[in-house]
What we know:
alpha/beta; seven-stranded parallel sheet; six-stranded parallel sheet; 26 helices; about 40% helix; binds adenosine-5'-diphosphate; binds magnesium ion
Amino acid sequence: TDSESKSSALSGTLEQSVMDLRGVGPRLAERLLRLGVQTIGELLYLLPVRYEDRTELRRLGGLQSGEKVLVEGKIELTEIIYRGRRAMLTRITDGTGMLSLRFFYFSRAQQKNLKRGASLRCFGEIRAGSVGLEMVHPEYRLVGPDTAPPSKTLTPVYPLTEGLHQQRLRLLVAQALDHLEQVPLCDYLSDRLPADALKLKEALRFLHSPPQGTQVKSLSARRHPCQLRLALEELVAQRLCLLRINLGRQREEAVPITEGRELVHKFRDQLPFNFTDAQDRALTTILKDLYLNKPMHRLLQGDVGSGKTVVAAAAAIASAASGLQTAVMAPTELLAEQHYASFCAWVEPLGIDVVYLGGSVSGAARSDSLAQIATGSVPIIVGTHALFQKEVRFQHLALVVVDEQHRFGVDQRLELKLKGKDGKVSPHQLVMTATPIPRTLAMTAYADLDCSIIDELPGGRQPVQTVVIPDRKRIELVQRVFRHCQRGEQVYWVCPLIEESETIDSQAIEKVGQELKEALPELSIELLHGRMKSFAKDRVMRSFKAGDIDVLVATTVVEVGVDVPNATLMVVENSERMGLAQLHQLRGRVGRGTTASSCVLFYKAPLSELARARLSVMRETTDGFKIAERDLELRGPGEVLGTRQTGVIQLKIADLVRDAHLLPEVIRLSDELIEKYPQRVEPLIKRWLSGQPHYAKV
Ligand code: ADP
Ligand code: MG
């Protein structure tokens, strides 16, 4: 029969398809695929998201609300009640106490089954009901003489997908575990670990069926040694994958940028300020990288206002002096336009042309720009993702500068890079980010990039004073704004972005703008939001920069990169709704000149615990790295890096914060594998990253 032939096939390997398991046909296989599972081995690496303790029948007398428990009792009574919402209520007792089961959805058949005198086993969460303790919609089964005793192991709960139920998945994993007993499992790390370290097979078996007595709590904290053993392997796989990307790059070639030292000097001389030491170091490193015939892949990290752009401009000047092209890409039109303006002001006096290519450029102007880019007559091209479009052809793109990289996907970066690719030759890449990346993350999530840090703000800047106040103090704040503007300084008043609807957005800020205009008729107050046409935004931004507008009421479009040193007060509405990174970016809009600046974080009470924690971090420090560390603790790395956008590797069991203590071991092991056991690298990456094809393949 089918099942016999299948079980005899189960002597092979873990690479076998899940179709070789009993009861798995094409339909089920397709559903498993949605969970990233194609082989029996991958099924074993589908780890439970949590566990339930169904090993012990608890006495009804000793239950507490909030517990999830397995209980058994005799039915005393089943009745339909109509108080409040119609429900079926079943009462069970076991001699020590009593429990009510409450069902809001039930069939006639269910009602008939649950008759007085029958024994029932239930699993569910206890809560305090109107007539004592109860379970709402418990899982239950009638108990007879043949009913098996409770399970001897904790019950794993797996991630699910439509059409695949827990019970089904548990049985499949159980088959896979049987299979594991008969076939070799490659343990790529055990011989590199101390002799008493857990073996991989043991850890896997344990995690799918933890024996009775294992504390569910220790497992949910993910600190159990078996979980750590797997987390270690996963982190090694992640690092190997990124190192491999790096190695692959070292085989690529790039056009060296060898000219332009003098022009860069001239550029620095004509600036109204001196580079900070940190800028100087970053530029020196970058120019050294560019001098090589291997593509640079460098992350330039620096807090908001630390002056990254001017460093990038110097690199672009060297590229132009070498007769090569540089593409500078920003995430928003506004920011791209601002970069364009800065670049023009900086490089045109040196006789270098800049062209702008954004979504708003069309018609003849656009074809003109495209032609200039294609013939190579313009060396610096600033734009948005419009730089990706098919029609954009570069003559000799040698350097790609990407600003605010967390807003671009890795895929997008790759795409722009491919544009410059000419046979084996790739452009150099400089990625600028104002999101400080904590060391732990940088070492793992960005192991494929070299990193320079500008850890110093230009001199003369004063730290921004931050206050957190409830929005009922609005009137006092409005007075403060007035005094502020009378001194000739400017104000940002920012409202949060409501993602679902740009209409609501503009209404919200129009209301705020209207109120301010009424309260402060003497001041010039203008709005800026995403629904405005880009020429209108541009006009407002320009007049704000020129000092013609006192108060700029804006949505969070001003978050990124806008530079107006005379703006010294930042008011943020509904700050309780914003993340730390965003608040830090917003606050970075002020404190860019030599005058003392302040930031007012308005909130609507009551504050959630998380919001309270975030706002006090903002009050306590202006150090971007500290804020990022706290952000990481509060939100976890996936959120901090915007996992989906950046395409940062998604981890299954490891957690870069919680498992940070494993990193030295991770680094030691991955370096050792690369050096002494290179044949293990590929299978390890495949084991952990096969569900993320753009990484597995690179
Ligand atoms: P970032 O992009 O890192 O947030 P910017 O490059 O926008 O910062 O620089 C912020 C402002 O500081 C700009 O007006 C820039 O011209 C100016 N700036 C850059 N470097 C220095 C410096 N060394 N001294 C004084 N001002 C500087
Ligand atoms: Mg910037």
